[in-house]
Amino acid sequence: MMINWGAAGIGKKILGTGVGVALGVCELPAGSEDYIRAMSSTACLNARVSGDFIMTPGSADGPVKIAAAEGALGIHFSPLLAIQAKGRVRGISRFDAGDARWSLLPDGIKRESEHVILRIGNPALHSLRASLGEQRLPFGVDANPADDLWWATGDRFYWGKVRRSATLTFDNMSDSQVDLGFAGDKASDDSSQQASARLMYDLRFFERARLILSAAGISAARRFGFAFVTTSRAGATTQFELVRSESGDPELDAGFRRLFRFAYDAPDRRWWFLFDEDRLRTQTVATGYRYFPVEWIPGNEGNFAFRFSVGRVRSLNSLYESRFLVAVGVEAGL
Predict the structure, then answer these.
(1) pLDDT tens digits along 157-208
(2) Cα 77 from Cα 135, distance rounded (Å)
């Protein structure tokens, strides 16, 4: 989920405007309402590929390779209608087939579709909006600034499945927004349709701060979330998020699950920090740095980077083993 601070998003640049193809993150500069109203037949493409080399000092595990790619496409027919899609693929493998395996980094290729939707309405122009298609029900922040290694060791349980659903948004275009989601298909582990609600409110006594309250699910599958997100004038983002699910873990015979997240992302994406504690699973503390030596596409900085990260995943149960992890890699994107 991306948090939009008004029409300008969080101010990251795109290359290209007008009719044609824009390379970037489909966010427009401040004061661009006239352009949005005139926008027609514009496609916005965002893509990233990366590769990482992982070492686990102090364990018998051999080195691990992670290759990943993700992309997003938005086709804007008019300010009212757009088709948007986003997905990723991630492959994990060992250099030596005989290397010891860590259960949180299993070998193989995993493909994920984040959403394929028809969007009705524009966040900069319309207070009532909707999205229809394959998507997650609106819930929480679901933002992780870390590299692919730390995504792979995490658990997507708290954010729900991508399902055929509809989302309605009511936005007063000032300081509050309500999202209502309704799922029309039946996931394998659900006995009936699902629904969710998310309230976002911008605090007036902070420069740029947002409170987010969420609820989703039915009966024993209910989830509740609270989050607080701030963005500095320079663009650094800090988030606190607490999620509780009434669904237990049958393998651990436990009654409920809870996730606490604290994350920081520097305005230029160079530094990031992540603290995740999943009550029944793991506690992760990690930090990383990205070095941007060149502008791959002139005028659109941040397209190529060397990246480094270090952290520890501590097991909170008997099913997993703790690991200290060091990763080096590269990423390139549009």
Answers:
(1) 898 889 999 999 999 988 899 999 999 765 545 545 689 999 999 997 777 8
(2) 20
- Judge whether residue 18 has pLDDT over 50: no
Rounded-to-integer distance, Cα 218 and Cα 197, Å: 12
Enter the tokens of residue 146: 């870390």
How far is the first Cα of the chain from the last one, in angstroms, to the nearest whole number? 20
Q: Cβ-count burial of 163 within 10 angstroms (0-12 exposed, 13-18 middle, 19+ buried)? A: buried
Q: Which two tokens stand for residue 72?
A: 């997003």
CA distance 224 to 220: 12
Sign of CA dihedral 25, 31, 35, 39: positive
Contact 74, 116 (CB under 8 A): no
Predicted pLDDT of residue 5: 31
pTM for the model: 0.84
- The sign of the CA dihedral 99, 100, 104, 110 is positive
